[in-house]
Amino acid sequence: MTTHIYSGPLSMFGAKVEIAAREKGVPFELVMVPFIEGDFYEPKHPEVLRVNPVKQQVPVLVDDIDGGVSLFDSTQIFEYLEDRYPPPASLALWPEGIAARARARQLEQKSDEVFFPNVIKLFGLQDAMQSAPAVAACAACARFYEEMEGLLATREHLAGPYGFADIAFYMAHVFADRKGAGMTDATPRLVAWRDRVGARPAVRAVVDPMMRFLASQGRGVPAFLQR
Ligand SMILES: N[C@@H](CCC(=O)N[C@@H](CS)C(=O)NCC(=O)O)C(=O)O
Hints:
Elements lengths: L2 E5 L4 H12 L5 E4 L13 H6 L8 E4 L5 E4 L1 H11 L13 H26 L8 H20 L12 H15 L9 H11 L2 H16 L11
Parallel strand pairs: 1-2
Antiparallel strand pairs: 1-3, 3-4
Helix pairs in contact: 1-3, 1-6, 1-8, 4-5, 4-6
The structure holds glutathione (GSH).
The site of glutathione has 14 residues, from helix 1 and helix 3.
Protein name: Glutathione S-transferase family protein
Organism: Acidovorax cavernicola
InterPro entries: Glutathione-S-Trfase_C-like (IPR010987), Glutathione-S-Trfase_C_sf (IPR036282), Glutathione_S-Trfase (IPR040079), Glutathione_S-Trfase_N (IPR004045), Thioredoxin-like_sf (IPR036249)
């Protein structure tokens, strides 16, 4: 079976998928789609247009098994990877048990759809970080960090064992930090979680080249990732 993952050099969602594939030991070929000045993904890669014709976004995963599996959306791809590479042969990235899995899935979704929209707002407000919408977006990020800090009172990772929820929030938080809404010493357990997750070889293998890409363009690299 050949697995292709289509991503971009600064794709937060693509990085989620690549980290998960590495954690699970999936052999894959990474295709970086064209990415041009202004942070536009142009021209669109033909496989991205084929698999995701309306949204035209990465990540996209294409497998040549079972008549072909072509998927878009990082969360959908997470589900596929766990089904295709189940434990114990491959690292489990959803916890065991219906309730625990449901909670983990909700956290993963909240990271993308509750936390990250604040970061997307900050993308357009970098020259106006004192403006009311920017201050509100940073405050929303800080509240989310506090919520995650609460979860870590009784466990080492967000949803029990390390998994998809951690991968999603780690990547979302890297981008939040880049845009001025990083975590602080107000959430010490979360900072320790960040160090634990960030030290994983699969995470480093994806985040380090992304930070080198940023540095090569003279763009800011979060202080905690300057190594
Ligand atoms: N919900 C999607 C979001 C994907 C997404 O926003 N992809 C961005 C890159 S991180 C993209 O391809 N943007 C290019 C565009 O929208 O033209 C997921 O989880 O994969």
